[in-house]
User: Fold this.
Amino acid sequence: MDEKKTTIFEHLEALRRVIIISLLAVLVGMCISYGLFSEAIMRIIMEPVDKLGKELVIIGVTEGFLVQLKIALIGGLVLASPLVFWQTLSFILPALYRHEKKIFWLSLFFAVVLFVTGIVFAYVCVLGLGLKVLLVNFSAGLTAMISVSKYVSFVISFLLPFGIIFEIPLITFLLSRAGIISPGLLKRKRGYVILTIFILAAFLSPGADVITQLMLALPMLVLFELSILISVIFARREL
Assistant:
């Protein structure tokens, strides 16, 4: 019993150390980002709305400062992510077997690649089109006065779901490898999955409008069909 208690306390202490180091890394990253990269990050975020010739406004005394902090937090998370990943891995990996570590490393690599791909895809291909539809096509004759804080929040909440939904093929592969799902199951449940996708799109989209929900749902539908193909290929390899 004493050995078990000691082991539990050691794990809790290791977890506490990981959390503290990760939070300090994010804080240091925020300071570096605020001092060196905040203007560059802001230009990247503002570029889609600048191309439309729309100007943003500040409607609160502290709004500009809070936006700068939000931008610094984004940069801090990006800068600190390698150390945070390393700390997390140092806590998880000792509990895995050798073959599980190989699967874990491959899964982590593809998870990061797919997440970044989803963010880039949304920024390059979808965000500008969505802003044009919402701010130009659907606001004819009206003057748009957009708060910079609300715009930044919209962009962040618009991009992040794309990074998440681009993980669908990887999740499908892992579940197929574990024998939890099969191509036949995915095909039989296609109708339920499509309904779930539109519900998730309504929940994850930053706005209540149908346009942004469709822009999020359509890539999810394509990724689901791709997941069926991945599951089919994997099942054939098993045969």
The chain is about 85% helix and 0% strand.
